[in-house]
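agent> call fold_tool(seq_1)
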Amino acid sequence: MKKYNRIMAVSLFLYLAAALLVFVLWKDESMEQDLGYKVEINKIMRGLENNEMFSKPDLRKMETINSVSFLPADENSVQEIRLFYENRNKLSMTVRPLFVEDRFLGYVRFDYIESGNRRRILWFLEGCLFFLWIVVFILLLYIRQKILKPFHTLSEMPYELSKGHLQGELQESKSRFFGKFVWGIGMLRDTLNESKRKELKLEKEKKLLLLSISHDVKIPLSAIKLYAKALQEKVYETEEQKLHAVTQIENHAKEIENFVKEIVSTASEDIVRIDVENSEFYLADFINKFIAYYEPKCRLTMMDLTIGRYENKLLKGDMDRALEVMENLMENAFKYGDGKAVRLDFYEEDYCQVITIFNTGTAVPEEEMPHLFDSFYRGSNAGNKDGNGLGLYINRQIMIKMEGEIFARRVDGGMQFCLVFRM
């Protein structure tokens, strides 16, 4: 804001400098014009005084003198005298006596253009400068009050959200520039708050589950230890007693194995909580949003993005979640592909809309294909690239919740993923 205030101060300084320049020009013009017509009159008078009688001077080189007229000394007609002195075309007038060698010939009248015209232009220019500065100052003030100041207030909110401070309130804004932004930040805060609440609840449930299972595991574990110690110390004398002890150890071991399976199953199910709001959306809207986001990114990375022909069908599902699926696939293309090309094709099959996404690069080995959508699974082509193996797992969960499907194919020159949407 301080820099912007300096800009406003500079605009005032520039206006004052321009106004001062115009004032100086006006002053110089006034002085020049006050003396200009007198210089020309004196020049004409010197020429007339060198003649024995009055003759019309040449006014073509004169800037201020418009006309010159003569009233002889012996003219006594009232009408001629009145005509000589009357106002002509609202020009300024001055009268000089004409003497030639101390002989009075009469009076010479000079009609000249008053110098105020150019001064009025300078005054008009001064007014225009003042009006222009007022407009610029009001515009700068409007930008400061309606755009920069609200943005300065809102700029702290993303930082607070990144620190986990989710309880701050945003004031409602009627600004046409930031109304939707404020609403979006508010939605983001509510979403993060709800996610944090669900995470705490899930963590609590997991701890309770682990405590419960650990308590249940203690009983069969104690029994196993007891039977094992009995066998070790040869408490059982007959083969039938020993066989019974071994059978009990095996049964209790199966109980523990079932508890472990339950823990693994629960952990796998709760890796991510995916909420899908199924409705309907148009394929064209979906593709346009995808292009708007990824076309600039592909252009920057020199990747060729090709969109095949399609018909604008009405699809069932959650468009935001479907875009998340496309995002995961595109990020995988950037990360694991060769960065040359991505192509989207469309076709209809069994009353479903299929979208195929092909990216060039090295395909996943055939033996790894069955595990591609497993949680935490990363193919051998991942190398040392960052990732956690959840992207394709999340994609499948989203597509299943939208009553669709996703599968992968190894094709010549790269990988192809197929998304199936119900219509």
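agent> call fold_tool(seq_2)
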Amino acid sequence: MSKKRLWAPWRLGYISQTRKAKVSSKCLFCEKGKSNSDIRNLVIARGRFCFCLLNLFPYTNGHTMIVPYRHVADLGSLKKEECLELFELAHQMMKRMRRSLAPHGYNLGINLGRAAGAGIPGHLHLHVVPRWVGDTNFMPVFSDTRIISQSLDSAHKLLRRPS
């Protein structure tokens, strides 16, 4: 019996980014927060204390992260105004998603520490993941592959528009 292959050349971007992230001593979120290149960095919105950007390796279309500008590792270290804006921006992103993507629900999550699954454990960030009935399939289970039906550029253009 021959092995079946699923060619996924787009995964090379993820693998390359992961290798670079391990070598780099700079915080990805701190760099994107300081940058003025919002389109290149997939930044959707900016507040006074936090900003929103698309996840470069999303679970679903429109997978967004809300990130404090300040390099903070845990919720207890957030100032009251940072915490408030973090969730105000999550609310704003959900309104934008509702308007432009029409999801049936959402997952919101913060992974604190590497053991909890944080890809960047030193800089807290809130994931806002739109969900649809039937959006799961066999691909992640059998081949550790997610199928995303919308480009990041397209999602960025839709979600940048204020509610």
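agent> summarizing second result for user.
The two ends are 54 Å apart (CA to CA). Strands lie at 43-46, 50-54, 64-68, 105-109, 126-131.
agent> awaiting next instruction.
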